[in-house]
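Exercise 7.
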Amino acid sequence: MKLVWIIIGCIMIVGAAALLLPTAERASTITPRFTSEVAAVVSKPAVAAVTPALSATVGISTAKSVSTAKSVSAADVKSPTQKTAATAPLTAPPPGGLTLGLDRTIANAVIAPGAIMRQPDGSILADGKYRIEGDGTHENPYRVGWDCLASAGKTYIPRLKENLLPQRVAMLDGAWIRVEGYVAFPLMLQESSEILAMLNQWDGCCIGVPPTPYDALEVKLLEPVKPGKRHTFNFGTVTGRFKVDPLLVENWLVGLYQLDEATLTQSGM
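Solution. The predicted structure, written as tokens, is:
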């Protein structure tokens, strides 16, 4: 009986060996192949081949970015020196420029030279922007725009300790000028020889835009306006001798321009 079990055991061992042997052989065959394929994929030569290409791409992109940044900086950004040179005030009239007004003495102000150029038609072009006609005499007064008078507010601000008065305004001091604008009369007086000429309409109280020292004239008329006529208009032309006379209260500018010996006219008046 023992012999039978020994024979059966040997047969089972042989059969098991026969079944396991092909599996081991297949495993030994597949494993080296799989290992070699994986090794080929992750091998250093492959990584080395990809890395230079990636580096080259990144390098080109970086170079383009740096190049673009440099070109934008050079083309669009001005240095502080260039900006200062472009906006620096003149220290003397340019060649061919008139010296009108540079000899005036105005309290609390320093006259800044400008480009006051005589045009072929006899008019004056101030600083390439403001056109002034006439010659400043009683017979042919300067015709001045409010934009020229108001432009003094860009450089003459006493409360900020900015006291540069442009030559285009200083040249009008003492000359005869003519300006069109809105007018306001004293509220409590029936007849007055003093009025206010302004760039904007204002009723002297609450309607309109209150004037600033730069866009208003304190006008002293040769003859007072009659009570019956002062209510017939609020816009006219004033002509008189111009005076630049800064009035400061605690360094605040409350008055700047006056017009003496003046006349007020309007169509139909």
